[in-house]
Amino acid sequence: MTTRTQLLSEMDAIEAIAKRLATVAERTDDQRKQDLATARRELAIRMMTVMAIGEDYPPIRQNAAVYAELRKRLSGLRAVIADHQARWSAVVIGSDDQAYSASSAGVQQAGRDFMRWVRRQVESLPPSTDNDDGDAGRRAAAS
Fold this sequence. Notes:
Blueprint: H1 4-26, H2 32-55, H3 58-61, H4 64-87, H5 97-124, H6 136-142
Helix pairs in contact: 1-2, 1-5, 4-5
């Protein structure tokens, strides 16, 4: 079973990749395109991972309203990312740095908004079992 700590750890990894992606997006060197492609792949893999373990996290999965909202928000984020990547393939990234940076900033904001919402949900929902890491600190303090 997925624990709160596992889910938050994966989200931390996504946020680190997103920050690296934002830094790479602002560069103009020849390696930028390759680094962007690599970071995009890493981000996609991590997003799939967080969704897979998030769907296995009972406080989300068993709360129909939260789960439905998660799916809706994820679908919106995926659409923003897909649109950006379709307009800005690695081949055309260098063609208009200012427009690329603006588009990239929009995707980054959408990603931050999504991650902030998910993190708020994970941190505010009650843990599913005594084995969930969300209770570990309270159990230790009560001992």
